[in-house]
Amino acid sequence: MQQSTQKYKPLRLYVSGLGGWLILMQIVLYYNLIELIESIIRSVSMFGNEAWSFLVEKGSIMYHPMWKPAMWFFFAVSIFEIIFLIFILVFFYSKRSFLPRLMIIFFLVGLLNGFIFLILVAQIPLAQEVLGNEAWWIVASIVECLVVVLYFKRSYRVQNTFIY
User: Fold this and answer.
1) Best label site of 60, 68, 77, 154, fewest CB within 10 Å?
2) Does this UniProt record's set of keywords contain ATP-binding (predicted)?
3) At 35, which helix (H) or strand (E)?
4) Helix, strand, coil percentages, rounded to 5, for the chain
């Protein structure tokens, strides 16, 4: 008798749909959207009041030349991220094939923006006292990006769901 030398390919589990870990990703996306909208509302309300002039007017106790660019950078990035998130949510529910790349880009750009903001704010002595040690944020953001990138690169559910 001859033994069969045929190789067996393992079958990919045919899981698809917006279930599984994609439920968690939806929660993360909506949480980020709500958090960004809230931060925009807080920023807009601050731009017109005394706190803003207290931070950006020369001669003020709290004045530092980096406050204005740091706050405008944060505001502009938040607006951009809200628009990007809305596009991601539309493409997420449309199950577009390019969504995994958009998700990876969104989280990597968010990490990069966070680093830039921390570098800007680190130049302001008062902000350093208020923010304290942000090492936990850096580590958490790197881990979050790593998890999202690996999930969207390797998940069978992602490969089977985002096909249009």
Assistant:
1) 154
2) no
3) helix 21-47
4) 75, 0, 25
Does residue 46 sit within a domain? yes
What secondary structure letter does DSSP report for 65? T
Tokens of 102: 């958009």
As a whole number of angstroms, the distance between CA 68 and CA 74 comes to 10
The tens digit of pLDDT for each residue in 114-126 reads 889 888 888 888 7
Q: What is the span of the domain harbouring residue 25?
A: 21-161
Total domains, the chain: 1
Residue 135: left (phi > 0), alpha (psi -120 to 50), or beta?
Answer: alpha
The pTM of this model reads 0.83
Name the region of 95 (left: φ>0; alpha: ψ -120 to 50; beta: rest). Answer: left
Cα gap 38→36, rounded to integer Å: 5
Q: In this structure, what DSSP letter does residue 119 have?
A: H
Instruction: For residue 103, give the nearest of 122, 113, 89, 121 by alpha carbon.
Output: 89
- Secondary structure letter of residue 61 according to DSSP: T
37-72 per-position pLDDT tens digit: 999 998 888 877 787 888 888 888 888 888 888 888
Residue 37 resides in a domain: yes
Q: Give every CB contact of residue 55 below 8 A, 6+ residues apart in sequence.
A: 62, 63, 64, 67, 68, 71
